[in-house]
Amino acid sequence: MTLLSFDRRHLLGALGASALLPARIAFAAAGQTERRLVFIIQRGAADGLATLAPIGDPAFASARGALAEEFAGLNKLDGMFALHPSLAGMGKLYAARQALFVHGVGIPYRDRSHFDAQNVLETGGTKPYEHPDGWMNRLLGLLPGGTRAMAVAPTVPAAMRGPREVASYANSRLPDATEDLMQRVSQLYAADPQLHGLWESSMQARQMAAGNDDSGADPAATGKLAASLLTGPQGARVAMIETGGWDTHINQKGRLERGLKGLDTMIGALRDGLGPAWSETLVVVATEFGRTVAPNGTGGTDHGTGSLLMLLGGTVDGGRVVADWPGLAPRQLFEGRDLKPTLPIDAALAGALGGHFGVDPARVLATCFPGATGKASSGLIRA
């Protein structure tokens, strides 16, 4: 069941559509875990080879052409990889052993449709539209019953849809409602067993987000808003943030630079906003597939296969890059053009989620990614 939580600026629309509202979300916090999970999806297939560049690969410079130039002179994180210079905050997390990168991951889907691939990534299936619910909703069934989940978005994304209650919260640009109107609505709903609970729940979310306006265009504001919704005993423990603009067919360099800087800023604001709770937090950043190794004729890259998974937070056993690196020489590429995926992304996700929440990773794999074969990854989270 899903619910859109409202602030005052959502109120006017809510009044007109109140008959369509679903049953209330339970705001009881009893029993929910203190561990926090934030899943950030990069819609549009972010270029993992430009985010964490394998500059130690002897074929890197020739294969990437002009896209390799911005990594000239950068220090490697290890013997192979260098982080994009726009990810300065993430580099500090890596140095603090709170960032771990898993390179060369892939979903089971091997075609190149964004919509189909995002559906597979979010629903944990082996093919598009195989499951009506998402892996995050199924994960909630493995956590304590009071665990709250929230999408920082106008609607609940596919990864969070399913039978378990999930809220969403987003500020709007509509004018604020007056306090008098708010009080009258409260009185109007007071005797309604369904709408009263929904209204009270929405007001709690509004109170948690107070002062954290976010139009969706300011990454720092989004990170701060998400932190506010994840803080305190009534806060959510599982959240999802959607980011876009990663489909860089043209002029990739500047567009990716801005996107990565925004991502870095958002994560920094989330970390600062969570404060001490950051030590109990896992942030997962993933995209649906990678991009071609070679740039195209317009300074961009096209849809590819192997991609990058980023794990950040206080529970991550970081300061490492995990990769069974396939190489970038022509004979080593998938279909002669893409980074070859060498690790199923669901295996890495199951290993990270299981370690973070103290649930058997094999059980997480079977529950969240029911068609997966193989074994969940180990050693991604601190013991």
Name the overall outline.
globular
Q: What Rg is obtained from the alpha carbons, in whole angstroms?
A: 21 Å
Summed up, the helix count is: 12
Biggest sheet character: 10 strands, mixed
Low-confidence stretches: 1-29
The topology string of helices and strands comes to EHEHEHEHEHHEEHHHEHEEEEHH
Helix content: 25-40%
| Overall pLDDT score | 88
Q: How are the SSEs placed, and which strands pair?
A:
Blueprint (H helix, E strand, L loop, with lengths): L1 E4 L2 H10 L18 E7 L5 H4 E2 L6 H5 L17 E2 L4 H8 L3 E8 L7 H10 L11 H6 L8 E4 L13 E4 L9 H11 L5 H14 L10 H11 L8 E6 L8 H23 L6 E7 L19 E6 L7 E3 L20 E2 H13 L3 H8 L15
Parallel strand pairs: 1-7, 2-8, 2-9, 5-11, 5-12, 6-7, 6-8
Antiparallel strand pairs: 3-4, 5-10, 9-10
Helix pairs in contact: 9-10, 11-12
Question: Can you tell me about this structure?
Answer:
- This protein is an alpha/beta fold and 383 residues long.
- The protein has 12 helices and 12 strands.
- It has helices spanning 8-17, 48-51, 60-64, 88-95, 114-123, 135-140, 179-189, 195-208, 219-229, 252-274, 345-357, 361-368, and strands spanning 2-5, 36-42, 52-53, 82-83, 99-106, 149-152, 166-169, 238-243, 281-287, 307-312, 320-322, 343-344.
- Strands 1, 2, 5, 6, 7, 8, 9, 10, 11 and 12 form a 10-stranded mixed beta sheet that branches. A two-stranded antiparallel ribbon has the order 3-4.
- Helix 9 packs parallel to helix 10 (252-274) and helix 11 packs across helix 12.
- The longest helix is centred in the C-terminal third of the chain and has 23 residues, at 252-274.
- Residues 1-29 have low confidence and may be disordered.
